[in-house]
Amino acid sequence: MAKSIFEEMGGKYERQGDYLKQHRKVTYTNLLTSGRLNDYLADIDRQAQERFERLIEGMKQAQGITERLRLRMDWKNE
Prior knowledge:
Radius of gyration: 18 Å
Number of helices: 5
Distance between the termini: 36 Å
Largest sheet: none
């Protein structure tokens, strides 16, 4: 499985795990004891990455940023 940007930058699933430990203790314990905690946290990270990518794409469209415009701007900055 390919690493997410979060993982590539050295991120770990600690925040999600900490949240579960503090606010969803039963869910955390069930996932931990069943051996599904890491898969669950990886899935949460994947969903967050997908949502982030959709958000960025929507922002690009709303602001009229196209690949062609981006390439032209990159060329001018060289």
